[in-house]
Amino acid sequence: MSNKFAFGTVAAGASLAVLSFATGWWLTPTFNKKSREEHKQATEYVYEQRENYVEIPEPAKVENKLQVPVMVEELPRYLINARPSKNIPEDFGKIVIVIDDVGVVKHGAEESLTLPPEVVLSMLPYGDYTLDTAQKARQRGMEVMVHLPMQPQTPEGGTAADPGPNALFVDYDLDKIRNLAHVNIDLLADYAVGVNNHMGSQFTEYKDGMEEVLQVVQDERLFFMDSVTTPHSAVLNAAEGMSLPILRRNVFLDHEQTPEFVENALAKLEELAHKNGHAIGIGHPHGVTIEAIKAWASTLPDKKLALVPITNLLLHK
Fold first, then answer.
1. Cβ neighbours of residue 166 under 8 Å, at least 6 residues apart?
2. From CA 69, how far away is CA 56, in angstroms rounded?
3. What is the pTM of this model?
4. pLDDT band at 159 (very low <50, low <70, confident <90, very high)
5. 59 with 273: CB under 8 angstroms?
6. Are strands 8-10 and 19-21 parallel, antiparallel or unpaired?
7. Within its chain, how far is the Cα of 163 from the centroid?
8. DSSP code string of the chain
């Protein structure tokens, strides 16, 4: 299967070489007509923890909070904050696991930190436990992402799920979208390598809004991973002409919270990694997901597969 995966070019300062990421692969998403509702069900537990929300004030103006040494201030954060990768045999397929929705539920955050260090934690900016967990994840050598809340679709005859405080909505003006993107991302930017959407089945279809978001992500020197919560995502079109890397989710691991479902989803990831060279799975901090990943990870070398941090797909092609 031939897919396009454009990384763009990132300026690393006048005294540093230009870093070019040319062609790779667009990872084919797994999606069916039930996926939006299933994704909603898989994340509903977050919204039962309202007492854990941290309300982040919306600023009138966003200031640049970047604090890195001058000598590396132009390097992408996905280089600065990348976890070193082990040498992977050339004939091995690579698998990335991202755990979304981390930072709101204390037990889930703690359990996520017990996963293999190659697993990536995507943090909800408004969680009580987000900053503490992000710091601990970095200490463990785990890569961290920003799980940016966005508007989901409203089911026919139903009510849309709540994406949480400071989420992006399609009826906001572009200045507000840009400022809210900064509010969410700046909180974790010094720890993060990238950003992916939380929910967003409606917002990611909004090209103008996604252009604002991707510009902020690029300015923060991060990459963006499309969680693919809609088959009509405008992310790739919105990224045209920009230089940030764009990644794309393949498989959701835990629409159903049973060992059998998670194991089957992990098997699908294995199949795609063998077929395409790599694959990205998204799970959530549920006990069944965490236990399944722990047991599964040790089986990979015998299958000529490797669990890798997400930046490995950008830096070691």
1. 56, 58, 125, 126, 149, 180, 183, 184
2. 27
3. 0.79
4. confident
5. no
6. antiparallel
7. 15
8. -------EEE---TTSPPEEE----PPPPP--TTHHHHHHHHHGGGGG-GGGB-PPPPPSS--------GGGTTS-HHHHTPPPPPP--TT-EEEEEEEEEETSSHHHHHHHTTS-TTSEEEEPTTBTTHHHHHHHHHHTT--EEEEEEEPPPPPTTS-PPP--TT-B-TTS-HHHHHHHHHHHHHTTTTTEEEEEEEE-TTGGG-HHHHHHHHHHHHHTT-EEEE---STT--HHHHTTT--S-EEE--EES-SS-SHHHHHHHHHHHHHHHHHHSEEEEEE-S-HHHHHHHHHHHTTSGGGTEEE--TTHHHH--
Give me 32's structure tokens: 């069916």
Decide if pLDDT at 204 tops 90.
Answer: yes
Average predicted confidence (pLDDT) for the chain: 82
- Give pLDDT tens digits for 222-234: 999 999 999 999 9
Binning pLDDT at 50, 70 and 90, where does residue 73 land?
low
Return the closest-CA partner of residue 239 out of 221, 202, 212.
212
Contact 123, 144 (CB under 8 A): yes
Answer yes or no: are the C-beta atoms of 129 and 103 closer than 8 Å. yes
